[in-house]
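[step 3/7] fold_predict: job queued, chain A
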Amino acid sequence: MFNDFITALTGNILNIPIWFFWVLMTFLTGFSLNAFYRMGRWFQHARLIENVPTAKIRSAAQGYVELSGIAKLMDGPIIVSPLTGKSCVWYSYTIEEKVDTSSRDDHFSSHWRVIKQGQSDELFLLEDETGRCVIDPDDADVVISHKKTWHKRHVNPPRRYSEQLIRDGDPLYAIGFFKTVTDIEQQQTRQQVAHVLKQWKQDPGLLLHRFDHDRNQQLDPNEWEQARQAAESQVRREHGAKAKEEQLSVMMSSDVSDQTYILSSEPEDVLIRQYRWRALKSLLVFFILGAMAVWVFNVRFGL
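[step 4/7] structure written:
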C-alpha cells in the first residue's frame, strides 16, 4: 500500500503544471527555512535563560538583566480581562469561529478562523524582597500558566474562546532591558539651578566674594560657569535623598535584536524545557519539509 501511495504521488508530481510545481517548492522551502529560524530562536531563548543570572531589583545593573518575583497591580484602575471579567495584571484573548468547507468530491472539512484577538498593554509591577520594578509588556514573548479555552456550540457558526492571564500575586519571571529613572528630570534640574542663581544675584557682594577670583568686581565667563556648577551641585545635594526615594525601575524590550524580552508566570526550569521542546519540534519540521522539497525536486527533474 505504501508503495502504491508513493507511485501515485510520483505520478502527480510529474503531471502537475510547472507553475504549480514552483508554488509547491516555494511553500516547502519557505516553511522549512521558517522552521529552521524558529529552531535557532527557541534555542537562543533557552540559552539566555540559563546563562543570565537572576538579579535583585535594588542591586540590578542597568542593561539586560533577569528578575524573579511576584506580579502586582499598579495604583489606579484595575485591569480586567474582556472575556471573563477577571482582575489581572496582563491578559491575552482570542475569539474564533468554525468555518466548514467542502471539496468537489463532497468531502467536508472545517477550521477555526480568528475573528478577534487582543492583549493588554497596561503597565504592572514585578516585586521582590528588595523593591519594585515597572513592567512594560509591549513586544514581550509572554509564557503563561493560566490558560483557558471554551466553546459556544449553540451559536451559528460555533465559536471558540481562549484566554491567558497573569494575575495579581502570580509568580513572575522577567528577562529584558532594565533601567532606573528618577522623577527629577533634567529640565527640572535646569529650572532649579536658574532659581538658585537668581537668588544669588540678589546678593551681588556674596556672589562676587565666592566666585570673583581675580577681584575685578565682575564675573567673567569662566567664573560664571563655576557659579552655575556650584548652583547645580547645591540642587543635586538638596534633592539627592529625595531622588533616591523616588527612583523608579522599568523593564522593557531591548533595542538589541538578540536580547529577547520574556515574561512568564512559569518558573525558570519549566521555561527552559518549553523553549527546548519548541526548538526540537521546529528542527523536526525543518528536516521533514526540507527532505520533501529535495525529493519533489528530484522526482520532477529525474535526478
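[step 5/7] annotate
The chain is about 45% helix and 30% strand.
Residues 241-245 have pLDDT under 50 and may be disordered.
exit 0
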